[in-house]
Amino acid sequence: MMFKINISADIVSEPIIADSILETKVSLNISQAHFDANHGEIIAEVENSHFRKIKDALTSKGAEITILDNPIIRDEEECVECGACISVCPVKVFSFDKEWSLQMDADKCIQCGTCLKMCPHNALILEL
Amino acid sequence: MVEKSIKEINSRIEDGSVNVVTAEEMVDIVVDLGAEGASREVDVVTTGTFGAMCSSGVWLNFGHSEPPIKMNKVWLNNVEAYTGVAAVDAFIGATQLSETEGMAYGGAHLIEDLIRGKSVDVHATAYGTDCYPRKVLDTSINIYDLNQAIMMNPRNAYQKYNAATNGSNHKIYTYMGTLLPNLGNVTYSGAGVLSPMHNDPNYETIGMGTRIFLGGTQGYVIGEGTQHSPQSNFGTIMLRGNLKEMSSDYIRASTFEGYGTSLYVGMGIPIPIINEKVALATAITDADITTNLLDYGVPSRDRPKLGEVTYEELRSGTIDFNGKEIPTSSMSSFKMARKIAGELKQWIKEGDFFVTEPVELLPSDTVCKPMKQTDRSLLVQDIMATEVITIDQDATFHKAAKTIMENDYDHLPVIKEDGTIAGIVTAWDISKAVAEEDYKLVKDIMTKKVITANATDPIDIAARNLDFNGVSAMPVIDNKRKVIGIITSGDISKLMARRQ
Ligand code: SF4
Ligand code: SF4
């Protein structure tokens, strides 16, 4: 399952991700990470059965966890199946099938929002 | 040599014996039968494309009001239409933006709303004459209330189009969509194998009067389009069609983030197979069509050409560029292009659409020239301050504060021992250091990621860089990175004010 880890200013310099992984021995698949002096935001994926464990480890160290269970939605009326969204998605949610129809593997979506701005027809919706 | 007349082909359409295939289907037929066999076998090849065509608009005639008005300005849902013609005619262009909603709604959206039969607010103003006394008009209309709604596209259906990528280090928003930094993606447009004009690249059948599929109805080519440049395979056509008969399946409004609005137009041209040369041309494949890959990260008319790619590569989903795999995105819909070619084929088969002989073929020798500019564009070197006071990176914070105060500057470029740029220090950096009671050396408080300009950059680009990076001054450096001047947003604003 996909989730977001928010790390606030006071603990941003501490190795809480590494510590949590070592402690729980749960491997995390990190697909995005943004850090600056005041804040850290990480998008990660973990097997469903391990979520609880890693979540507890991270929250006990002060991180905030949000489950990303609202993946990208496509308004099929608006979509003209151009494929503009394909190349900007960092995790390859979009592709064409043999008939040049747009396919979506929405489970992979990490809700980065890039495709929303790319779509010329306003057909993509992310309910954050 | 097989020769077929338009009349002959039309009589086959009439009696139902016509053989019509799409340009995609024609590829294998020519492979199997050869050009001669295929030209005997096939009467018409249909093409199609569905993509953003900014150069689109609609002529509207509102009919006369009581008392009558000679519209001086007119807005439809707050989007201004052009009225510099007779009293109640106006032209609404697809890329005109709403004065209240900006890029969220434009001429393209208005056109789609009209096709959908929606009601539209009209606001017009006038200076008033003896014959047209009215000065203000407010009404709401829909497409059925208009006398005419004639789509006119001055430049449509580019034969092919450049592929776009971005070599700069930041994301850019263009009419070719979002382009990720460092060649992160490639976007392209055009239907390749189904491309209307690429299936008749020598313009042997397309010209003024060619009947086509336009927006779901029958329209016409009325001549070459603006910027028609056949010598470089960038031919274009001018189109006309009745908006009242069009369908919102084939005419769709779009917004390109950071660029504006545009209209997706569905069009298709039937190519009558009058001889084997034309048959051979319609056998073109994606692999045969090459286009330039341009760096849109350089905001210039002469964008650097990074290489050439075929539509086959582009449509495969990734291209290989110097060993790097770059994902590609089409900005136009191939699925829709196919649907259009299929629909046109059906119309012809069913005897609802006849092919035409153009009254005049498209010119094949014109070129598209760049603009002649009599006013030399100003460069950074024309307005930068050349007497720039700099400070050494190892100087104390006090010295920086004193220099700024004494010279009344807000920005002080910081240099290394060899005179090359190291950073910039501003009055703000100084205040911040004072507030934090953190008195150090200049290099500790300066901004290291300094945005610089080159002396030969055009002013408009410098202005955009200042804006984009949210800074108010840029040191100007030479090719050895030595500071030779400074340019501020103040200099540019003064210049712009003078220009207007
Ligand atoms: S960019 Fe928008 S319109 Fe184009 S395929 Fe993706 S969702 Fe559909
Ligand atoms: S928001 Fe869009 S671009 Fe980002 S991961 Fe989801 S589908 Fe891909």
Question: Any overview of this molecule?
Answer:
The complex is a heterodimer of chains A (128) and B (500). Chain A is α+β, with helices and mostly antiparallel strands. Helices cover 19% and strands 27% of the residues of chain A. Chain A contains 3 helices and 8 strands. Chain A has a 4-stranded antiparallel beta sheet, with helices on one face. Chain A has a two-stranded antiparallel sheet with strand order 5-8. Chain A has a two-stranded antiparallel ribbon with strand order 6-7. In chain A, a hairpin with a 2-residue loop joins strand 2 and strand 3 (39-45). In chain A, helix 1 (16-24) packs across helix 2 (51-60). The longest helix of chain A is centred in the middle third of the chain and has 10 residues, at 51-60. Chain A is elongated and about 50 Å long. The mean pLDDT of chain A is 89. By secondary structure, chain B is of the alpha+beta class. In chain B, strands 3, 4, 7, 12, 18, 19, 20, 21 and 22 form a 9-stranded antiparallel beta sheet that branches. Chain B has a 4-stranded antiparallel beta sheet with strand order 6-5-10-11. Chain B is globular. The A-B interface holds A 80-88, 95-96, 99-101, 114, 117-118, 120-122 and B 50-52, 173, 177-178, 180, 185-187, 252-258, 262, 264, 317, 326-336, 338. Residues 72, 88-91, 93, 109-115, 126 of chain A line the site of one iron/sulfur cluster (SF4).
How are the SSEs placed, and which strands pair?
The complex is a heterodimer of chains A (128) and B (500).
Chain A: E1 2-7, H1 16-24, E2 29-36, E3 39-45, H2 51-60, E4 64-67, E5 73-74, E6 94-96, E7 102-104, H3 114-118, E8 124-125
Antiparallel strand pairs in A: 1-3, 1-4, 2-3, 5-8, 6-7
Helix pairs in contact in A: 1-2
Chain B: H1 6-15, E1 20-22, H2 23-41, E2 44-46, E3 49-52, E4 57-61, E5 73-76, E6 79-81, E7 89-93, E8 97-98, E9 102-106, H3 107-115, E10 120-125, E11 136-141, E12 148-156, E13 163-165, E14 172-174, E15 177-179, E16 186-188, E17 207-208, E18 211-214, E19 217-224, E20 237-242, E21 251-256, E22 260-268, E23 270-272, H4 276-281, E24 290-295, E25 305-310, H5 311-315, E26 318-321, E27 324-330, H6 334-349, E28 360-361, H7 380-383, E29 391-392, H8 397-407, E30 411-415, E31 421-426, H9 427-435, H10 442-445, E32 453-454, H11 459-469, E33 473-477, E34 483-488, H12 489-499
Parallel strand pairs in B: 1-2, 13-24, 16-27, 29-30, 32-33
Antiparallel strand pairs in B: 2-23, 3-22, 4-7, 4-12, 5-6, 5-10, 8-9, 10-11, 12-20, 14-15, 17-28, 18-19, 18-22, 19-20, 21-22, 24-25, 26-27, 30-31, 33-34
Bound molecules: iron/sulfur cluster (2 copies).
